[in-house]
Amino acid sequence: AEKISELHRQDGADVTLVNLGMKDGGDTALQLINQCVQQGGTPVIYIGSPVYGSRAIPPVMDFIERLPQCSGALAVPFVTWGGVTRGFALYQMAEALQRKGFTLPGAAEIVAAHSMTWKADSPVEAGRPDASDLEKISSLVKNVTEKIQAGPVSGVDTAPFKEGRAANFDEVFSIPFSAFSAKMPPKKIDEDACTQCKICADMCPADAIRFSPYPVFSDTCIACFACVRNCPEEAIGIPVEALNSKVQERAAGSTEESVTAIYG
Q1: pTM of this prediction?
Q2: Bridge pairing between strands 107-111 and 74-81
């Protein structure tokens, strides 16, 4: 998202970067989009999500569902995935955006370091996105810009967003997302170490943490472990080594080549 913003600003575009994982991020983005629509403008939205459980995360999908009907507006969905499977997150986002009336001039699946191996000696896809990945992102922005300038803009074919995946589409969407997060190792609170600073709650993209008087996790948790990574006292524990081993094993057995894919 930062690279995309940088490239469009270099072309003189007015860009606002919003983190949907932060409190009120979705409200801020919606306000800007609605203002643009009400003023007769045509918003161009890039919207990204990590791939969790072969799907886009609920906060992103919830945001898309809150978008106004925008016939003729443009949206560019993109996902990051950590070398295990691209899943169907891009397809899921694309279909939801199209139902809202958006035309999709481009899309991307970008390889990134796997977020659940951050403490491993050799994280899965360490150093990604690398220079080659960022160059592909640059080509996406260039293609989208040229399409807009040439007009009218045609949408990309979304069929490839389901092809060549290690996961099974019907199987993935036959179970709720909560079943994926429920498979993750439970978090344990070290009450002696916890200072109740509430940083974990502030960093939670799913608003899943309450204090009573220590952190309590609701079933809206998406198992991103942002709370674990950002706790200054390391008071939220998970079996990191076991989690790393599981991800490393899945990545080693993946049938998908870890290549950033650009569409459109």
Answers
A1: 0.93
A2: parallel
Tell me which residues of the chain have a pLDDT lower than 70.
none
Q: Which residue is listed with tokens 């509430």?
A: 198
Measured CA to CA, the distance from residue 7 to residue 10 in angstroms comes to 5
Burial of 223 (0-12, 13-18, 19+ CB in 10 A): buried
Coil, helix or strand at residue 135: helix
Q: Which residue has the tokens 């796997």?
A: 114
Token pair of 219, please?
A: 């079933």
Q: What is the token pair recorded at 39?
A: 């003023």
User: What pLDDT, on a 0 to 100 scale, did the predictor assign at position 174?
Assistant: 94
**CA 205-179-122 angle, 5° bins:** 65
Could you report the per-residue pLDDT of 147-178, keeping only the tens digit for each? 999 989 999 999 999 999 988 999 999 999 88
Estimate the share of the chain in helix, then strand, then coil, as percent rounded to the nearest 5: 40, 15, 45
Rounded CA separation 248/17 (Å): 32
Judge contact between 93 and 122, C-beta under 8 A: no
Residues 94 and 71: their CA atoms lie apart, in Å, by 14
